[in-house]
Amino acid sequence: MKIGIQRTIFLSLVLGLCVFAIGCKAGDNKTHKKWVSEANDRWHEMRSGMMLQMATQQFETGDLEIAAKTVNEAMRIDQNNDGLSLLAGRISLEKGQLERAYHWFNHTADLNDKNSDAYYYRGVVLQRWKNYEDALVSYRYAYNSQKDNPSYLLAMAEMMVQLDEIDDAVTMLEGKLLYFDQVAGLRSILGHIYRLKRNYAKASDYFEQASLLEPENLKLREEMIVSKVAAKKYLDAIHAIEVLQQEDGYSKRSDIKRLKAESLAAIGRHAQARRVYVKLTKSIDATAEDWIKLGEMAWKEGDLGGALTAATRVINMQPERHDGYLLAGMVWQKRDHLENALKNFDRAAELAPNDAVPCILRGLSLQKSGRTSAAIAAYEEALRREPSDDRASKLLQTLVPTNY
Length: 404
Fold this sequence. Notes:
- There is one protein chain.
- With 404 residues, the chain is mostly helical.
- The protein has a domain at 50-179: Tetratricopeptide repeat domain (Serine Threonine Protein Phosphatase 5, Tetratricopeptide repeat).
- The chain contains 22 helices and no strands.
- The chain is elongated, with a radius of gyration of 34 Å.
């Protein structure tokens, strides 16, 4: 390819010399000089354009130093080529030379104020400097220069979110949905924005639209699933997960398995959820959270032994985590081993000083063992931690109804 371009440059040089020779034979000296000047301009423009193509190819293949050298050579021929100036800026940007890149993009805009990419890449530099307001201005210039480029619109929206202009960003993007009806990125960024707004149902809808436009983009399907789970669209999420798990590598992804188990548990399919958690706890990246979830599923199925085994594993893995002790205490309480239950509830209450649940469960064990005064104190502590807790209030009223 490089040889072909060099051959084209050589032929163009020969053509330029021929034009020059013909011009020399012209009788009028003024006309002759004009022809020579125009021929030279055309030649310089043609040659710099060809060198720009060569440098662009070098840049796109990652040969940054060679591309920079080609650009410098071309600029010695044609200093007014805004394409060369833009590419020089992009090379500097790729090298992390932000100041130099910023200079080149400004210079490009000076050469050609219609070059939308100059404003766009200048915005990229400003964004990296966290100068979001000026970045937004630059992206807006780019968009106003070329309104059919969705990348500029999305860059504007990203800056508006950074500047906490979220509602304005949504209004702007949704106003362009019909115009950019085939752009998945527009739906994707709306999905992210609605997730920021905690409108998970709307977020999942937009991610689903984006994934339909780009079915090969599996990341969009992941985002859709996460949003569906957050929106409590559990059946839809389970179906989407099972489809995604047919793709290479996804059947082994622990994070995807966790989303599936969470969805199964939420709709009461505890046995199925438990099977998924069993697989997770056997994996190399098993977490204490996987074990506590497995214990919860065992508890809901009435398997006290399985629940206690899981709780013990959590305590061993993360002894400063309160829910392992809480689950162990619940098992011992269910088995009427109240002293063991109290010991675990006390530790859970110590590790979670703002949680009322360990205190309530401690009160139940004390009440069951006939220690009413201690039970009252436990319920009072629960209410101190969470004054609006109805469970603690009602339990306390059964023991001292006149005061509460």
